[in-house]
Design goal:
By secondary structure, this protein is an alpha/beta fold. It has 24 helices and 23 strands.
């Protein structure tokens, strides 16, 4: 059976002490199965494109070491696909003869089979690109769009969609290589051969991971079974630690036993799949708290990880010098069970792979990444001496599947060149996290005084709680949990036969509840993220909750028949002020960990009507606050640091007001084109994020603000100008 071996540390040179670099690729998809149907195909498609290929990159570079996190509910879905115990409508129409397709099935093809990156994926094939353009031209009329495609077109579309979700190493082999060269006029036999190729790919995923584990090259870790936000599952009021003024669900949800169940199931599932105990756990979305670390220790995990933002918030009162390099060491947190080792990811390095480098030439991206690693190494030596490298470790942690379709050739050249460089440069030593734990030893780790509650996104839980839609979802989970507990309490009093039946029903209902506790449903509720498939995610969430009541033979609440985003009552039930609750003055630092922004508003963009792909300078959040003298804006980008960009804030209301700022300068233009108040100045701090201020007097009394943000990025000789929102304006109302 495979073992998560801890390799012996290699010395690359007696004269050079390397810095340890631990990379973790997090592989996760939501649980898309409801009943006997997969409502969305993404677990399968990422398996055929990414999960085997990410392991193959290690196989092709034997000296490279790293960590791959496999979420149990993802692996469970792949098992279910291979055993064919559930149907996937998308894959079913992919396999079906083009002449036999119904109008409904044609619509499934046309609505789903262009969900791929336009430039990097669809644009690789002349035929696929032509089909896409034809679909766009006839998009407004379903019948016209169907009729714009021949039987051969539907057959070609099915093959191209399957090829789009095929990894690069597999694409270079038969039958894919010949199909790519042919480009069009595919036969159904060729399509069937490609589908069987996909099944072969998925069957290889776990065996290859086991093989790499056995030779000590990778560590495989796990996450809570259905990927819940553990701190919120333990207590929804943990959100108040980082967001003291957040609006919370009506009912305080406290279910530490559910959180423990999610962890314990993951631990046991891992043992079953890999024949050994897991050492590390990546908590869903890097979400931790004091209570979460206690449960992780009790479940038997020696180490865990989260974001550097959590470390900074945990080291209350630490000075800048202490915080500068703190994330480059493992720490330990004492618990009632045993100490847990904690690693803290470098946010910037992780986001560079996840977002920034996707538009760069592979060699430039690798050079930049290596250069930053070496800069960190030099800084550590300068600050603490070369001996500090014995305990230091740079942690890079990010999603292992979602970024690659934005890279050329699924990131093949980037990862190949990165792994080659990391294994040949003597100053860098790739490793697994367990290797560092074993090498450093608990006695040599500094003790963390506390663990702040938060996630790897902004150090808080705003994505999953606080918005009326999120809060409605949490209250629906609380209601379902209550009926499960009530049903469980009655079972001991039943007769033997009835008890067996009730116990079976309870197990099935509880399984549906565990699925509904997952993080992915609230990821899409609220206005932070957008997908054309938001309604499908909402359907899945409510289907699982309805199933709780069905299995327990109880009436299903009528509210679960209504999409959460369409419920007319939630705005009043979970009323959130659209105004800051006080006028605390933020401190402009330009750092990701903001000071004084807890009461700021979230500026809302208009609803988007179609799928939007991430841009190199996409905005993840815009916060607006004010005191008696100034208006404050905080802008965070998807691709990490803000300092390379120039920001122009253009106001539609009050019309004509404009602020332009970069890391070097800031300028403001008044409502009438000139600055009439000569003593008024704008301020800006642009580093990891952009934080700006405008004198309130320049608003001329306007309380309802409409504005857009234009971001200019200069890369070499190229200038890219990006506007958010692409159309219309952000809106916010001040007191």
């Amino acid at each position: 059976m495979p073992k998560n071996k801890v390799p012996v540390t290699e010395t690359t040179s007696s004269a050079i002490k390397p810095i340890s670099l631990a990379i973790l690729w997090h592989q996760h998809q939501p649980y898309y199965r409801a009943g006997n149907t997969f409502l969305l195909p993404w677990a399968w498609l990422h398996a055929t494109k990414d999960y085997l290929e990410m392991a193959q990159h290690f196989e092709r570079e034997p000296k490279m070491r790293g960590t791959i996190n496999l979420v149990p509910s993802l692996l469970l879905q792949l098992e279910q696909y291979l055993s064919q115990e559930a149907d996937d409508p998308v894959l079913r129409v992919m396999r079906k003869g083009a002449s036999l397709l119904s109008n409904e099935e044609k619509d499934i093809l046309l609505n789903n089979f262009f969900l791929a990156n336009d430039e990097r994926v669809i644009g690789r094939s002349p035929c696929y690109k032509e089909l896409h353009q034809r679909s766009i031209a006839a998009y407004a009329n379903a019948e016209l769009r169907r009729n714009a495609f021949s039987e051969q077109d539907y057959r070609d579309l099915a093959v191209h969609y399957a090829l789009a979700w095929t990894g690069e190493f597999t694409r270079a082999e038969e039958p894919c290589r010949s199909l790519i060269a042919k480009d069009r006029d595919y036969t159904e036999a060729e399509r069937d051969a490609l589908m069987e190729c996909h099944r072969a790919v998925v069957r290889k995923i776990i065996p290859l991971h086991r093989k790499l584990m056995e030779r000590g090259q990778i560590e495989v870790t796990t996450s809570p079974f259905y990927h819940p936000i553990l701190p919120l599952l333990i207590d929804t009021e943990s959100a108040l630690e980082a967001m003291p003024h957040a609006s919370l669900p009506i009912e305080r949800f406290r279910a530490p036993e559910e959180a423990a169940e999610q962890l314990n199931r993951a631990f046991e599932y891992y043992k079953h799949e890999f024949g050994t105990k897991p050492r590390g756990v990546w908590p869903s979305e890097g979400s931790v708290s004091e209570a979460t670390i206690e449960l992780i220790a009790k479940a038997g995990f020696p180490w865990t990880a989260t974001d550097e933002t959590i470390l900074h918030r945990s080291l209350v009162g630490a000075n800048e010098a202490r915080l500068r390099y703190a994330r480059y060491y493992p720490w330990k947190r004492e618990t009632q069970a045993k100490p847990v080792v904690m690693f803290f990811r470098d946010h910037d390095l992780s986001d560079r792979i996840g977002f920034t480098y996707q538009t760069w030439k592979p060699e430039d991206a690798v050079r930049d990444f290596i250069g930053r690693i070496l800069e960190i190494r030099d800084g550590l030596i300068q600050a603490s001496g070369e001996a500090t490298l014995e305990t230091a470790c740079i942690s890079v942690i990010l999603d292992g599947e979602n970024c690659w379709e934005y890279y050329e050739n699924n990131g093949k050249e980037f990862l190949s060149q990165l792994y080659a460089a990391l294994t040949t440069i003597p100053e860098i030593a790739p490793c697994t996290f367990s290797e560092r734990v074993a090498h450093v030893g608990l006695k040599n780790l500094e003790t963390l005084p506390s663990v702040a509650a938060g996630s790897w996104i902004d150090g808080n839980f705003r994505i999953w709680i606080g918005h009326p839609e999120d809060n409605a979802a949490w209250d629906a989970v609380a209601d379902a949990k209550r009926v499960v507990d009530s049903y469980r309490s009655k079972i001991p009093n039943l007769e033997k036969t009835a008890k067996a039946s009730a116990t079976s029903r309870l197990a099935k209902a509880h399984e549906e509840l565990l699925i509904a506790e997952g993080s992915d449903w609230c990821w899409w509720y609220g206005d932070e993220h957008f997908t054309v498939q938001k309604s499908e995610f909402d359907d899945l969430f409510r289907l699982h909750l309805r199933a709780v009541y069905v299995w327990l033979d109880l009436p299903v609440p009528a509210v679960l028949a209504i999409p959460i985003q369409e419920r007319p009552d939630i705005a009043a039930l979970y009323a959130r002020t659209n105004q800051p609750s006080d006028t605390r003055t933020p401190t402009l630092t330009g750092k990701r960990i903001g000071i004084g922004w807890s009461n700021a508003l979230i500026a809302k963009p208009p609803k988007q009507g179609a799928m939007r792909r991430a841009s190199v300078s996409d905005i993840t959040s815009v916060l607006v606050g004010h005191d008696d003298d100034e208006l404050f804006l905080r802008i965070e980008l998807a691709n990490g640091p803000a300092h390379p960009h120039t920001f122009r804030v253009e106001f539609e209301q009050p019309h004509g007001l404009e602020l332009q700022a970069s890391a070097e300068s800031v300028a403001i233009r008044g409502v009438h084109g000139v600055l009439t108040h000569s003593t008024l100045t704008a301020r800006a701090m642009i580093d990891e994020v952009a934080e700006l201020s405008i004198p309130l007097a320049m608003l001329h009394g306007a309380s309802h603000l409409c504005f857009a943000i234009e971001i200019t990025t200069v890369t070499g000789e190229h200038i890219v100008v990006h506007r958010e929102p692409p159309e219309r304006w952000f809106e916010v109302t001040l007191k």
